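Hi R.,

Quick one: here's the DENN domain-containing protein 3-like sequence you asked about.
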Amino acid sequence: ILITGEDEAEGTESENISVPKDIDLMALPQLCFPGGLLVTTERKEEQFHFLVFTDVFGNKSHGVVMQCYRPIWEWTSFYKKGAESSHLAKLFSAYSFCVISKYPYFNVLKDCLSCLLIQLRTCRHSDLEEKVKAFAAKLTLVPVPPPGQLHLMFNLHPLNITLPSREDKHSPAVDFDLHLPFLCFRPQQLLQVLSCLLQEQRVVFFSADWSTLTLVSESFLFFLQPLSWQQPYVPVLARGMLDFLMAPTAFIMGCHLSHYAEVAAETDDLIMVNIDNGTVSTSLSDTVDTPDIPPAAARCFIQRCQSLQLHFDVSQCHQASCTDINEQREQRRVWKLNLHHNIQIITLELIVNIFRDVSSHLNYEHRVFHSDEFLKSREPSDQLFYKKVLETHTFHSFLKDRLNQKMDAFARMELSTRSEIHTYVKNNLKTKHENQILKRYQQSISIQLQGWTGAKIQPWHFRSLFTYFSLAILLLPLSHFCPLFKNFDMFFRVSFSLIVPPKPVKVFKLPDFPAFHTFLSVQAYYFELIQQLGKAVFSAQNENSALLARFYYLRGLINTLCSRRLDALSDFQSLCKSDTTIFPTQLVSCLVDSLKNEERQQAQKRPELKRLLFSVNNEKPLVEQDNVVKKFKLPCKRLDKDEFVRCIQEWGIVKDVVTIHRLFDALSDDQPKRVSPDLFRDFYTYWKETESTAQDVYLPSEVIEHLDGSECVYKLSCCVKTSHGVGKLAMTQKRLFLLTEGRASFLEITKFRNIQEVRTASSPFLLVRIPSLRIQTSGPLELFEANLKAEAELWCLMVKEMWAGRRMADQHKDPQYMTQALTNALLMDAVVGCVHTQKSISAASKLAYFDEFQHEMLMIVPNTLKHRINPSQELPEPETVHALLYTPGTGQSLSNNDSKGDTNPKLWVALGRGRVVVYDAASWSMLQHRIQVGDAQVNCMMGLIQKQVWIGSQDSIIYIIDTNSMFCNKQLTDHRHEVTGLVVDTDDQHSSQQVFSCSYDGTILQWDSSSLTVKRQFSLRCDSLLSLQIQNGFLWCHSIVELKKNGTTQKRVEFPSGPQSTVSSFSSFVVIPERGQLWTGCADSSELCLWNTNDLKQPLSRVSLPISAGVTCMLRVKDQIWLGCCGRSVVGSQRSQVVVVDPESLMVSKVMQAHSDKIQSLCSAEDRYVLSGSACREGKIAIWKVE
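And here's the predicted structure, written out as tokens:
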């Protein structure tokens, strides 16, 4: 029984070395002798086979069985010719040893039993039990390595045995021959079996070798990762267990090949997999009539399989022959490690390609999976496969993990393979008009695909554009895509070969096992192991933090076994600075609870343990994770406003609560306001039909040439008479155009920004007047009129809304206004389509938000405003932008968008409750919609040259994000109050930069950024410390105090006195050392104070800020000071301004209307742009050009 930290937390040591309680010992003898207990006349070779035990909760244990034979003597008596004769015959009886583990260490335990076998062959029968006890005692001394790249080696004479670790905490350990199925089956048969498993068929594996059954079954289950099999699983059925095959549910079972005909005759609808000859059939026929895996994913899998090197001997042909068995075993282990890594990549890629689009049909907030929409997005030939898979428990479990946003191997690969072209295409998929975009590239890509694969592949075979391009990208060289996209280098910076070398593995050798297993000898063994781990910790201190964390974990585990609780807690606390993903929360809680009073007193004297004890004792109870997965269902009762909001958000059409409220007003009855289920159903149906109709719009290539790359038709009229001929009026997100009749051609009516007037009119026709839409533009067609008849008023409403949205988007430099206007227009169309009364236009007009509100939102926006982004766009309501950080890319910057650097610059945005959003600062597109750092508010952020971002939180923790993996796995917990400031010494250009952090209570810590250790700590006497800066080698604190780096106070500001000043603290400050200037601002004062840095007793001057009620934040950019100021309160709103001050003339050089709420944060991007973030009433970021 192998032990881990989790085992130790669950029970006592005696419980750990006992037989697991969940294993049915009554069935164990049958499984140890699955073919029956045999007595033979000749000694047979020892044989191994493998078992898997599953309890009712789905927890697995794994067993390795070694079957041996020992001699027995049979005395037989018989009569011959009336005389009694006797004969002594030598027979051989089978007996077995079974080692059981929580982990699938099949090869390790087989090696261990093989070493035991050498001893058993030479020992006497009376010594057998003692030999087995000593063998088991040695195994209990072997710890299981934590997830990661650290493997353990131990010597069990004559072999050196390596114990591999799991790749991560979500993956099982791989200690069996993962390539066996590739040797037994062709890729097509592998796909057949995987398809049956994904559809939860009744699958039975057959082989004449009992050991092969479990290894192949385990391999197939591993190939399904991260989907986990949820049905009965018995990889080895003993001869007396064949009735299990009559179970009515789905299952995976394994039988001896001798039972093949019997099973086929007695059962129906079984998928029968013959491992020995590599065939897949059913119990009724030789063919399998189940839907196949989608061909795009299948082709990619088959192509990848061709690159695998499956034979060890082939790879060793050029090597010298090994004369040492352990050296040969090590060579094979390294070869197998590389092969297994490649197989994992290939099979995971297959699962990712099958289920990649699932995430785009999930509503995370309401935990809804839109299965119908997902099925419609699949190719028609694949829909039956997906329909069956979606009904399985296995897929349901997978959905739970996706909705819980589990960052497993699937999620990581999906992110890593989402290249720039994928991002581009997927952004266009949001319009749900993929067919229009696809038709522009279909001919070129289809010809290339046909020439490359030899198969005739057309884009209309794929309902999903993303799937089509994924196949093309996987199969075609980059050069084939060059003519299709502008700025080609920007879109393609990925390698299509996913077969990459595995991460380097460190093997740590355990001490030799003690000769005698007494208490003292075992303690001496553990002490020696602790010493070796201490040396390993020292050597890895400044090299590899991930490896260092694994050494800390192991030493903490061994200290726990030795009852050295404080040392164990200290080791586990060190994981916070090296890798929090392997922190054993449950074990640490048990250790803290088991501390004696004397140990608690000692812990309180050690700062790192004092903090750990406090966090454990005040730990919030774990909230049970929500595992509900809902499917969207149309309501059956009348909906009030809250229920209506929930249904619309679950549907996924609109997230913004304010827009949904306007839609509710448009659809609701008289008081009390409610929406009937019939009306909601009509609205839903009309919306989907309109969406489907728009997707099927066919545009000739002559028309497509006039449209932009992402432009799609959202509204198309019937054929009408216009002032410029007969045709169909079409509306995109950018313009109106006429699709003329006859030979279809393009006639641009106007772009929305060029409209001057829109109104309804009437045109004479015989004796009647026909309602029409009249548009006056500033373009070539000064006047356009279309006889839209009954649709004239609706078109007028929609065009007005788009026109108003375009004007506001241009005026405020905010493209989201145009997106919102388009949503409003489409909602108007749906409302008119489902409200079959004369009030339909009146109801739709309630959604005309921008058309009515644009005059109320007039704001003089200067030319320096370049763009706006909304980091809360994925949220139902806006959130405050608490902090902003710009980090430059490698080889690329804002000033060089066309360079071929490795990474683009990034903008990091801290929202509420520890949520961080990341943007590509070259295109201002969102890269990561959520990185979670605790659940408290973020106060500050800072970037380091070691590809790290440090984040200070109100929970007193500094979180460290790796900018390559975009994952937070390190924490600094030395502060005792909320972290309010972070600053790096930019004068220090060494690999280990010096970082200073401050907390609200006045504590300042100096960090070594490489080792993450505190070099110096000092405290500042003040009421509160809210920020920190470093200038010319001196620290400047928010108080305002100038300090040396050792904490010695140099100067301190004396607050202004007199009747004009009521200031007792500053909200922000800027130091300009070359001018000897210190600028300070206050949140409740409309003036800036200028101080001489050499004399801080009285301000030299004051600068009055026009129309400002106070300063919330300040920033120095070049030779300017940028201020975020609160405007004077107006009833119902609070405007804010960005003010620029010239420090030379001491004058305000620019005042710019910025946000409709106060400015919470400012940051600079290469001194070329300044970004301002606002509070939650608006929640947007404005990007300003520095002049």
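The chain is about 30% helix and 25% strand.

Cheers,
M.
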